[in-house]
Amino acid sequence: MKRTRQAAILTVIQEKDVETQEELAAALKAQGFDATQATVSRDIRELRLVKVLAGSGKYKYAQSGQNTAGLSERYVRIFLSSVVSIEYAGNIIVVKTLSASADIAAEAIDSMQMKEILGTMAGENTVLVIVHNEEEARSVTEHFRELLK
């Protein structure tokens, strides 16, 4: 039963952004599992789930084995406190950071796993974010700016 419930948890967090243990317990209940908050908490710990920043700007549970695992709340705070400006030209977004902060900002961006982002490249104080087209560049830039508010 435990393995089946934990497999269901992994499926739920892959299919939707789950922010709280209560949401996860409700999703399990909808699938026929009778799991208390304490049980869900233990499962989260055993599965080594972490909270990461979702593309929506909210936090969600994710597997620690995914690329998003490295994105902790500390990385997000560093990202938010190190960004100086964000601009785009064509399909490239230029994120200016404080000196020596670009690598951690790029890691935070990569960990967001936004489908629009093809990749990032970090220098000393600049991150280049490559997206498919100018429309996506505008959208992702607006998203980053919203996070900074």
What does the model show?
- The protein has about 150 residues and is of the alpha+beta class.
- The chain has 2 domains: about 1-70, Winged helix-like DNA-binding domain superfamily/Winged helix DNA-binding domain (Arc Repressor Mutant, subunit A, Orthogonal Bundle); about 75-149, 2-Layer Sandwich (Gyrase A, domain 2).
- About 45% of the residues lie in helices and about 25% in strands.
- The protein is built from 6 helices and 6 strands; from the N terminus they run H-H-H-E-E-H-E-E-H-E-E-H.
- Helix 4 (about 75-80) crosses helix 5 (about 100-110).
- Mean pLDDT is about 85; it is low at about 65-70.
Strand order of the largest sheet: 3-4-6-5
- Shape, principal axes of CA atoms: elongated
Mean pLDDT over the full residue set:
87
CATH T-level fold name of the largest domain: Gyrase A, domain 2
Give the H and E element order: HHHEEHEEHEEH
SSE class: alpha+beta
Tell me the β content: 15-25%
The level of helicity is 40-55%
Low-confidence stretches: 67-71
Total strands: the figure is 6
Please tell me how large the radius of gyration is. Answer: 17 Å
- Characterize the main sheet: 4 strands, antiparallel
Q: Report the CATH C-level class of the largest domain.
A: Alpha Beta
| Structure annotation, total helices | 6
Domain unit count: 2
CATH architecture of the largest domain: 2-Layer Sandwich
State the distance separating the first and last CA atoms: 44 Å
